[in-house]
Amino acid sequence: MNKKEKIYEMNRRRFISNAGLAAAGLTLMPSVVAMNSRRKSKNDKLNIAGVGVGGRGFGVLKAVESENIVALCDVDWKYAKGCFEYFPKAKRYWDWRKMLDEMGNDIDAVVVATADHTHAIIAATAITMGKHVYVEKPLTHTVYESRLLTKLAAKYKVATQMGNQGASGDGVATTTEWIRNGEIGEVRKVEAFTDRPIWPQGLNRPTEVQPIPETMNWDLFVGPAKMRPFNEIYTPWNFRGWWDFGTGALGDMACHILHPVFKGLNLGYPIKAQGSSTLLLTDAAPVAQKVRLVFPERKSLPKVNMPEVEVHWYDGGLQPLKPDGWPAGKDMNHHGGGVLFHGSKDTLVCGCYGRDPWLLSGRTPNVPKTLPRITTSHEMDWVRACKESPETRVETLSPFSEAGPFNEMVVMGVLAVRLQSLNKELEWDGENMRFTNIGDDETIRTVISDGFKIHDGHPTFDKEWTEPVNANAFANELIKHTYRNGWTLPDMPV
User: Fold this and answer.
1) Domain of life of the organism in this record (predicted)?
2) What are the structural domain ranges in the chain?
3) Distance (Å, rounded) from C-alpha 271 to C-alpha 410?
């Protein structure tokens, strides 16, 4: 046995010891000691594994099918059937931990497109094994998980990409170039919205316990979240509307719509956050939300200052009011949403993914193209980066060094909504990932169910509330989840 084989065997044995591999299912994460990933030449093909391949994951894998798709993992084999049949040579798995244990030496890169709450644990484990990772948006479920993936990617020097495809499109680049060139002056307010959700939200938690289909491994779907009885309302598509598994319309679409905002304005951590919504339930995201995030003054650019700026978000059918001068009859919604950059000289408008930017004044800027454009695809640009050495690699356009902090901004909006009953603007210490103005004695309650009924033609509500809980403890749990027994993340790099 050579040295490399000995290292792999040591890691494999440690993984098996820690994970307690058994027929009944795996329980713990593998060791954080990284295995050496095979390095490919630029003319060679990557060996790619997919985790969560029934929906968006299938699309990503088809976009990189010029490479070798060697392994497919999903907890719902009915939903994944199409992908399994499309890539018949790929080995099939229920559990991604077993896949990485058995095929770790034969996998170069991993595509993660599971429910939001398992993105981080899969990606973090793959990174510590030296695997390149492509993770669908939102990057993670929490602020802490975003920070973790950012630091792990830097430590292990792997190629990364978040699946916000607009990052590789012309719209984000053009919008950013116009702003940085001073075409609209200083921006102190931004308004953005999406027409989502297009899945159910604002629902009471189902009380019916349904039998688990033979094609579904429910325990693995729940993963690090708290166990609950199976109900078909949670998956495969509707997970986005349930707090334990998704991040609502904001988490789904802000990663597309707010990217030109984050990039164009050089945003970092917000310093203040406030949210409001329709009825906020313990389990389900609300039907509609409004969020305001405040970002501090940033370093001025050569042609424009970067003052303190407010970013306002709307979803659930809500939109900003049309500004003065808006063309009568023009729909603000462009491919799922839109953004208004209110500058001191002009207002810049773009659609989802930063599409088709234009100025409210009607002027068309003549600005040099200084940012890169991708001529292949968002997915294949990641493949290109995977094949380059860390020392000379040209980064993708949504690497975790940018996508991680950006995703923190997105899930901060979720925090603002879920903490709205504190009835105040929250002050945020981004560096230390904590709120600074929640008192030790403050408590918070949320609605378990609305108790809606119609009796003799009259609608009635009999809301069931949680018991008051410590607000700081509640907030900290949203910032960094306590994982279910048997599921752990790698440690945060120093």
Assistant:
1) Bacteria
2) 3-166+377-400, 168-202+230-359
3) 14
pLDDT digits (tens, 9 = 90+) for 362-412: 999 999 999 999 999 999 999 999 999 999 999 999 999 999 999 999 999
Count Cβ neighbours within 10 Å for each residue of 16-47 and write b for 16 or more, e otherwise: eebbebeeebbebbbbbebbebeebeeeeebb
Strands 132-135 and 109-112: parallel
Position of tokens 């058995």?
A: 102
Q: Is the dihedral of CA 252, 122, 230, 464 positive or negative?
A: negative
Q: What is the CATH T-level fold of the domain 168-202+230-359, as seen in this structure? A: Dihydrodipicolinate Reductase; domain 2 (3.30.360)
Give the long-range contacts of residues 429-432, CB within 8 A, separation 24 or more.
430/268, 430/269, 430/270, 430/271, 431/269
Please give the Cα distance from 72 to 250 (Å, whole number): 29
Closest CA to 319 of 292, 290, 293, 295: 290
Q: Which two three-digit tokens encode residue 20?
A: 């307690």
**Cα separation, 466 vs 414, whole angstroms:** 19
User: Per residue in 399-449, pLDDT tens?
Assistant: 999 999 999 999 999 999 999 999 999 999 999 999 999 999 999 999 999
- Tokens 């709205």 found at: 420
Q: Read off the pLDDT of residues 51-83 as tens digits, 9 standing for 90 and up.
A: 999 999 999 999 999 999 999 999 999 999 999
Q: What's the CA gap between 260 and 421, in Å, rounded?
A: 30
Give dist(CA 89, CA 86) in Å, integer.
9
* pLDDT, averaged in runs of 10, over the chain (494 residues): 40 38 34 40 81 96 98 98 98 98 97 98 98 98 98 98 97 98 98 95 93 98 98 93 97 96 98 98 97 98 98 97 97 97 98 97 97 96 98 98 98 98 98 98 94 87 93 98 97 96
Measure Cα distances from 11 to 2, 4, 5, 15, 245 in Å.
14, 11, 10, 6, 30
Closest C-alpha to 197, from 234, 245, 247, 255: 247
Q: How far is CA 66 from the centre of its chain?
A: 26
Domain 3-166+377-400 is in which class? alpha beta
Q: Could you give the 3-state DSSP secondary structure of residue 68?
A: strand
Quote the distance between the C-alpha of residue 274 and its chain's center.
20
From residue 149, alpha-carbon distances to 248, 373, 408 in Å are 21, 25, 11
How wide is the angle at C-alpha 318 spanned by C-alphas 315 and 321, nearest 5°? 130
Contact 478, 233 (CB under 8 A): no
Angstrom distances, CA of residue 392 to CA of 23, 108, 161: 44, 18, 17
- From the CA atom positions of the chain, what is the Rg in Å? 23
